[in-house]
Amino acid sequence: MKPTIRRLGPRPLALHLGLATTSVASSFATLPLRDRGRIDLPVPLPTELEEMASRASLDASPELLQALADQGSGMMQEMIDGIRAYHAHPYRRVDRARPTLWQRGTTALLDGAPSAPAEAPLVLLVPSLVNPSYVLDLMPGRSFVDYLAARGFHPVMFDWAAPGEEERGFDTSSYICQRILPALDYVADLFPKAPLHLAGYCMGGTLAVAAAERRQARLSSLIAIATPWDFHAGLDGEARNLLDQPEFWDSILTGFGELPVDLLQTIFTSLDPNLGLRKFSRFARMDMESEQAREFVAIEDWLNDGHPLVRGVAGDVLNGWYGRNEIQRNLWMIDGAAVRAQDIALPSLIAVPETDKIVPRPSALALAERLPDPTVITSPSGHVGMMAGRQAEEGLWRQAGDWIATVR
Asked: What's the N-to-C CA distance of the chain in angstroms?
């Protein structure tokens, strides 16, 4: 009998509920000021409330005010109903049990096609360190790994798992030099007849670029999917202010010895404060037995499942990448040498989502501007949807598979 899993998401739950409440309450609190011009709200209003509040500021009749109150109350209740339905949903992810090709510490390299021919093109997948690796292998029918295998490629994927004793002392340079490069060398030696393509997703793409620069002779191409490069591009002022607080983040990392999962989720939530209100209200209206509901739960479980970022990595990301924008300025050091994307002569594919609040388009396109001759594609979805959503197969997966097939 499988153990019961108690869902805690959306994480942190109190923050999502608080932001939704603030958003709804703002529609009332700002009414007296709206006839003097638009004001900045602590949390932007959802579209439905924004439209109704704007009308109420012009015609604050009792009927319209009551309708606004009912609308806000209904949206909050619908969100709560959606969260309860998510907590109770019977879907549970079944581990795909991929064979392990290579392991060091808690990092494993999983084989997505163990029966592939020895000369089948290898695609070495590097996920982000922030959320679990299995977003690339979410579930049958929603697996980039399965798709690549079906196209005749040989996908192998890093699974970072929870940091162990050795990884707790890592920074980004350690992950590249002690994990990615040794594993890359291992598969290149194990399959000497196979072209090797290095593909990174999100933060994994940033790490992959540094690895690719150092192993160009062993690689056939570099693929960067929703990969941040200019960390000051496309972020609004509030996000910049939150992330550019070195003393604050240093005190957090000193106090906890790591960046806790819920604090990571708080950063992501700040990029789109009404996302929880919108998506759980939408989920409440779904048929809970539908494939759409199962996909929602699978992705939400992945979002709420994760491990803390170890102190060295978190310090690099928060203070070096976001604070000082070291990557864009060629100041990110790996094993004593700066990372220079402009020195990568490999064929490269840059995949940029159509809409992405986590990695804004200008941030991802900054990498394409550095590479000598990149191919840039746009996937018709957001940061997570491009990899595991309903449009992923006809979007990113097919685009990437078609491009890899052309590389010689």
From this structure: 50
- Average pLDDT over the chain reads 90
> Please, which residues have CB within 8 angstroms of residue 274's CB and are 6 or more apart in sequence?
19, 20, 23, 43, 44, 45, 46
Span 337-385, pLDDT tens digits: 999 999 999 999 999 988 898 999 999 999 999 999 999 999 888 999 9
DSSP string, 77-137: HHHHHHHHHHHH----PPP--PPEEEEETTEEEEES-TTS-TTSPEEEEE--SSS-GGGGE
Segment 150-180, tens digit of pLDDT:
999 999 999 999 999 999 999 999 999 999 9
Domain definitions of the chain by residue range? 9-88+261-305, 100-234+308-406
Domain 100-234+308-406 matching CATH 3.40.50.1820: the answer reads yes
Confidence at 306, pLDDT banded by 50, 70, 90? confident
Token code pair at residue 203: 């933060």
Return phi, psi of residue 154, to 5°: -120, 90
